[in-house]
Amino acid sequence: MEQWQERLEKSGSLEELENLRIEIFGKKGFFAKEFEKLKTLPKEEKPRVAKELNIAKERLFKALQAKKDKLLAKEIEKKLKSESIDVSLYSPKGFKGAYHPVNHTMDKIIEYFISLNYSIETGPLVEDDFYNFEALNLPKYHPARDMQDTFYFKDGKLLRTHTSPVQIRTMQKERPPIRMISPGAVFRRDYDLTHTPMFHQVEGLVVDEKGKVSFANLKFILEDFLHYMFGDVKVRFRPSFFPFTEPSAEVDISCIFCKGEGCRVCSHTGWLEVLGCGMVDPNVFEAVGYKDVSGYAFGLGVERFAMLIHQIPDLRVLFEGDIRLLEQFR
Ligand code: DAH
């Protein structure tokens, strides 16, 4: 036994250890032979010798296992060392990477609102009906729910279709005055030139005591924001409808490609729609238990902004992960 133990200790590689295992435990190995010899022993001796053999076998097997673990660890360490990459190595030909245009646009938007002391709020991507629809004045069977093609889970949960649910979550956890934006991913069952199933929105919400927040404030902020994003453009507010705001408006900028003269991008109207907004509907305040407050909200699609700023004709290329796209934005 001692000699096996010693040879186990000394074996220097997994291969050597495997050969030793066969020698000791294999079909024609040491223990097989020893057990075979039992047959020739007198009957009274058999149980004692068999017991001793089994104990020894177990002990050696454990030793083998322990040795194997050690050798394996060593081998992995060796492999890691040999495969390690020197990240400080300079490669003149290597692709240097670039910031994704969507991130870039998102950062610029966030930067603007941080400068006005808005807080940045986030919420879960998997939402429930209450936050995504109900509390936003979209009761069950409301026709406006059709506007958004929702991904549902079997248990009734859903992938949020807009960042508006974060309004509700923020109002539940804070008290007015509130001044927030909520950037993040949203999901809809859509796929064509200008739609992808995942895209990004930024939601804005301002709430204060009744009378302190007006449509005029909203208009001022959004005009200033759009000038910050797009430079010298005209801005117009068009009456529109959203369930969570009343009154509601959509905001257009004069087409940045044709300067308002009419081209393919603006469908020859001279205008590009870029935002939705309005005064928060009283039903939304009721859903979160707010009284005697007023507020405004707005929402925008980040990819739409990025497409306009960088003149990207097909939205889908932004999410295909083709490095050649990013190389153009270095
Ligand atoms: N949630 C809207 C959407 O996904 C965008 C939006 C429009 C948000 C108007 C607002 C708003 O807060 O006032 O289409």
How are the secondary structure elements laid out?
Blueprint: H1 2-10, H2 14-25, H3 30-38, H4 46-83, H5 101-115, E1 119-120, E2 126-127, H6 129-132, E3 158-159, H7 165-173, E4 178-187, E5 198-209, H8 215-230, E6 235-242, E7 245-254, E8 271-280, H9 282-287, E9 293-301, H10 302-310, H11 323-327
Parallel strand pairs: 1-4
Antiparallel strand pairs: 2-3, 4-5, 5-9, 6-7, 7-8, 8-9
Helix pairs in contact: 1-4, 2-4, 3-4, 5-10
Characterization of the model:
This protein is of the alpha+beta class and 330 residues long. It folds into two domains: 2-83, no CATH class; 101-329, Bira Bifunctional Protein, Domain 2 (BirA Bifunctional Protein, domain 2, 2-Layer Sandwich), CATH 3.30.930.10. The chain contains eleven helices and nine strands. The protein has helices at residues 2-10, 14-25, 30-38, 46-83, 101-115, 129-132, 165-173, 215-230, 282-287, 302-310, 323-327, and strands at 119-120, 126-127, 158-159, 178-187, 198-209, 235-242, 245-254, 271-280, 293-301. Strands 1-4-5-9-8-7-6 form a seven-stranded mixed β-sheet, with helices on both faces. The two termini are 69 Å apart. The model has no long low-confidence stretch (mean pLDDT 92). 3,4-dihydroxyphenylalanine binds next to β8 and β9.
